[in-house]
Amino acid sequence: MEISPAKAAARQRLRGVWAATLTPFDDELALDEDGWRRNLRHWYGELGIRGLFVNGKQGEFASMTIDERKRAAEIAVEEAAPHDGGVLISVSDQSIDVVVELARHAEQIGAHLVVAHSPLLYFGANTDDTIIEYHRHIAEQVDIGLVLWNQPPDCGYLLEPELCARMAREIPNVVAIKYSVPRETYAELTRLAGDDLIVSSSDERAWLDNIVELGWQVYLCSTPPLLLQTADDRRIDRYTELAVAGEVDEARAVSASLDRARDALASSRPPGKAAAHQKYWQELLGQVGGRVRRPYLELTDEEKAATRAAFAEAGLGGPSAA
What we know:
Mean pLDDT: 96
Number of helices: 15
CATH topology of the domain at 5-229: TIM Barrel
Strand order of the largest sheet: 7-6-5-4-3-2-1-8
CATH class of the domain at 5-229: Alpha Beta
CATH architecture of the domain at 5-229: Alpha-Beta Barrel
Low-confidence stretches: 318-322
Structural class: alpha/beta
Distance between the termini: 45 Å
């Protein structure tokens, strides 16, 4: 059976390590376009990231205007081009009209894919028919691939594996899913969907096992590839290459060497301050972090000090760390 152009394109493009971006805001809480460009050039260029997830939850899309989201997407497409980097634009919103507007804009500017979070639904409306028609309507407005995105704590319900596989079969340009669910659930979907749907999760610690045991082709997407790597220390990229090449034991050794950095990043994060903490960690790496917008809170001086101490213990930075 012939696959759609969108699915064929996604199979080629969605490979390797993709990362979720944080959006830098300046001291006046305006979009820091210069800082955004600087980060994008570092991520695509020095870190060699295969693709970026723009304007997602990590990017604080809910506090951005539609015009700001469009501008951030435009800059990402511009900066990706010299590196042949992938661009996945989040079009998530509670208004489906805004979702469609952002999806059309993403296609017009040359993004490769769009992603829409499962909508927040009320009065038990999260039936299969409602969910299918929601995604079908969005997909019909564009020709590029649509990535599903289900994180049950956010929307309040699970897209069951059978439903995800059905949408991939029935909607030609539903191409992939970021499935933030327990491993047994995404493993079931991987088996059910076969070649109809590219399945991934945001758990970097499980990425190696998912390559080896589930045959996954893409890590899609969270911040560890941007926060645990430097130009001289690209261990996530390295263990990915080794695993894909079948050098599993060496890949596991490289991955295990990141545990100290993983633990330092996770243990120093204050409750409810993921965005501010990750932006500060970016600054410690020499990236542009910037402010967070309300309702998020900034780090206190004490929290910054604890983060600096953890960063010093993380072992990131030089060629000797790899």
